[in-house]
Each structure stands twice: as structure tokens, then as C-alpha cells.
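Lecture 7 notes: from sequence to structure.

We start with a single chain of 625 residues. Read the sequence below before looking at the structure.
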Amino acid sequence: MDTGAGVEAAARRVRHARHVGDVGARVRPVVAESWQRSLDLGVDLARSATYVGHEPGPAAVAEAEEVFDRFLDGTARLDCAVLLVDGDGIVRVRRDACPDLAALLDAVLVAPGFRIAEQDVATTASALVRATGRAARVDGPEHLHPDLACLTEAAAPVPSDTDAAPQTVVVVAHLSAPGGASALRAAVAAELARQVGERVRDREHRSGRMLHARFDDVCARSGAEWVVATDGRATLCSPGFRALPREDRDHLLDRALADAALADPPPAGSTAELPSGRRDDVVTSVVRDGAAVVGHVSSGRRSLPVPAGSRTTDAMRRQGSHVAPTARRDFAADFRDAHADGAAAEVRRRANRELLSPYLRARRDVAAAVAARTRHLLLVGEPGVGKQTLAVEQFRRSHPSGSVQVLDCARIAESGGPLLPTVRGTDGDRPRLLVLRRLPLLGSVAARRLDESLRVLVATPAAPTVVGCIDTPSVDATRPYGLLLRHFHDTVRVPALRYRADELGDLARSVLHSLSGGRSLSLSMQVLRVLEGYAWPGNLRELEDVLRYVIARKPVGVVQAPDLPSSCFTGGAPRMSMLEAAQCDVIIQALYEARGNRYQAAELLGIARSSLYRKIDAFGISYIG
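Now the structure, written as C-alpha cells:
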């Protein structure tokens, strides 16, 4: 077996012939086998890694980041980079000790969010680990892909108790690095993989201990009437909590599970209106393990009763999010009552916040359902609003090790065997999510087939959470998919992008970062104003298309208004919808009460001042004072 120039010549022949053949005798057998697998998978050696996104999935991202940072902080300068590659070949974490090497890895797209599997870039050390289950190395021309031939890698699998494809720690250096350091890189990869594996195994026990400790501390020190803590899997309840009426306990548990499922920490202090009629002041604290949120602890006590005329139920709030006022409102009525009850004001503030931010309500409802694993949801909204993305995102946050399966209802045949083998899992109690896309495209026969499969599936132990997606603003039970409605417990309406103007800037930046692969590209304030003023009939899909157009025209730098497609500047102002009319109405009332003071109006509405300013501009509200 040759080395150096011989391996390089063998790689050139394989690239040209698209077959290993007798050339494999010149390289290590494990490398030759990987070359052949890559060719069989149709690898395109003229392209670089494939971008698939930053969704963490089941990878040990938090543990790897902590271990890698501690290693690099306590070590002298090394001319290497350290990577965590998940079982699908996707780079999840990268830490750089050498700026020059970091620039090189960026250039060849060995970066977080990019897949470097054999079907994408041919042979890598992480691919050999996945194929053999053992530590591996790949040096220089052993990389069949010419862009990677200047690198040398050492990789080791992260120890795991599961049968899933191994996650891999990879130490990468330039081929010009000292040859004697090869053994050192292999030892470093093995040690870092061991440390990551230990932290992953200890994750659940460590999180549970931290949650118990915070729960005991709150019970002992807060003086609260009741305390409940959860990490989304286990729930701790104080004696006072168990003494509450059953419907109140269920309400508070749903609230706690939703807080645990959402990535954003809940407000530290809030108010809970309980089904029994009592109203409690609730204090919520976040339990963190490093940067990761591992649970929430909520405590509460009875607050002052709400006047009967001021009580706003959940049903009323949901109705108010899509029904416009039916009579002229006296905007000065509440302003005249300068001594309005503070508790009632807090209730109104919460209702206004949900009215002005309908997506937050939808996200909270989805998070609570997927965390509980007992409620099947029907997501309704215009095409492209991100229904499937919302369901998968919240499921991943609640169940990082869970599995997700997406079934496209438009592709279900009108005949054939039962669908159940397609959608049933084999992982026992492992949380599962089944997403039914494009339900309205089901035919009559396909709907009956799917109904039969779901009827059996939801009755099995450890059944998956089922989420159906309807790409229309309303549900038509007379269509074939109406047969499936009995399987769902609740309906969540996902608002269109035009109703999310206050968060459109953050959304655009996030999408731009994902599409650009982390390049130095940003949006000017003028561009953000144009995006916020556009109606977005295509919702998130149209936003992604617009930003792809922008990236093609301007791959780096600051995006200015002329870089946007002309479609963003066409079309008159759309007619105000019922939801927009209700939002405009409540903003005007808050401005009257605050005598035009926008700071106070934002506080009354329970939203950020920047969100209020954007909505005032969007609705064209004149000065009120």
C-alpha cells in the first residue's frame, strides 16, 4: 500500500473513472471501501458540503460546547479545530484554535449546519467512524474530495447507550502540521469524546437533581401556597398544590409544561386565572444547567379577587383575536376611571399582549400539546406560515431524543396495504411526532385508508403525537379530510406573516443567517422597514425566496433597499383584516389612556416599545395626546 504521492494518484484515478477497482490496493482498505460507498451514493466531487440547517436534533450540542470550550481555554495555542458531527454527518459544533484554519474550513463549508457525509463530500474521518464504529483518521489525499485534500483528521465516537448512529468528535488540522502530532490529535479526539459521552449520560440525572434542589429551596423559602416544578418529563408538586381543585391543577400543569417546552424563559411574575374562579399571583424561575434550560419552578398564592365585570376568560381572549369590535368604543372611558382596579388592569394587559402577538399564543398552545404527548393538534393557517416547522421545533425542544415523521397526504395512494407500517415506530416509549402535511389534498379513498391506520395507531401504547396541517384559513368538514377530524383534540391557528410585523426583523435576520451559511451579511434598517411594510402573501416561503434572491445578488456586506426584488415595492396597502382592526383599536385605546405617552402605552399593552412603534407606523395611527 502506497502513501503520499501514490495515494494522491489513486484518488485522481478514482475521481476520473468513478470506480475504485484495483486502485484500492494502494490505499488502506477502510478508505477504499469508503471511496466506493461514496461513488455508489452518487457523490458530486465538484460540489461542497450540503447545508441542512442548525436544528440541533438529538446531538449532544450543549455538552460538546462546554467540553470543547473548557479544553481550548485550558490549552496552549493549537493549530487545529474541534468538531462535533452527529449521526447523520451534520456538523453541529465547531471550535477553532487557529484563525487561518478556521478561514479554510469556512471556505470548504466544514461548518455548523453543513452535512459532510459520504454522499456529500465522500470520505471523512467522521464517515469512517459511522461505518466502523471505531476511532479513525483520514490524512490528506485519502479525502477523495479535492477541497478536503489539504486536511488531516482524527475522529473518535462519543460513547452512547443507544443503537443510534454514533456522534463523533473530530480534531482537524492542516496537512502541513507536524506529522508527530497525528497521535496527539487521535488521543485528544478520544478524550474529548469520552468527556462528552459522560456528560450526556449524566445529563438527565444532573438535570433532575438540579430541579429537585430548586423545588426544595422554593418550598422552604418562598412562603407560597403551592409550588410545582417540571422539566417536561417529570413533575414535582407540593402538598398545597395537590390540595387545589382538580381543574385548577390541570390548568397549572398545562401552563408549567408549556413553560418547560418553550425556549424563551417565561415572565418571572404573572397572573393565573384558574377554572374554579380564583386568581393566583405566580412567580416562575428558570433552572439552568450551564446555558441550557432544564426546567421551571412555579409558585403561587391567591391574589385579590377580580371584579365580576372585569373577568376575561380564555375563550373570550381567543375570540378577541379574530373578531373585530361590533360597536363604537368610548376610548376615554377607562381613562376617566383613574382608579381602575390594578388586578383588572393586569388581566387586560395579558389579553392585549395575546391580541397583539397572536403567534406567541399559537406557539404556547403547540408547546403545551407536544409536551403533554396526549393531545393531537390541527394546525390551520395560510400556505407557507410555518405550521410544520412550528410543530417540529416545539417537539424537538420538549423531546430532544424523540423521532419525527412527516407524511405527505398528497402522496397517499388510493389503493394498497395499510398505512400503519409506514407511520408506526419501533422505539418503545421514545417520544414520537407524526406530522400530516397537506390534509386538504386527500382523496376520499386515501382519507379512509389513513383514518383506519390512525384509529389503530392512536390506540397503541406510547402512541405518537399527531399534528395535522391544513393550508386554508378555515376548516371544511365536508371535504374528505373531515373524516379525520375526530382524531384531533384541539385546533391552533397559526397567524400569517403580515400579522407578525413586530418580529419580522428578527425572522429575516435568522433566515438570512441560515441561508448565507454564516457569511458576513446583514440587513440595513431601510430594508427592514420595506420588509415590515410588505403584505407577504406567500408568508415565510416568500420571505425565504426574497432572501435567496438577495444573497445571489449580494453574497456579503450590508443589504440595501435596491438589492431587494421589485415585488417588495409593488402593491397598494391591503384592506385591514378583522385581526388588524382589533389590534389597531386596542393600541388607540392605550394611547388615549397614556395621554399619547408611548412608553406608558407599551407598558399598558404588555409589549415592547419597539413593537408598539412598528405597529403604530404599520396602521398609520396619528398622534394622540
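The CA atoms of residues 77 and 97 lie 6 Å apart. Keep this in mind for problem set 3.
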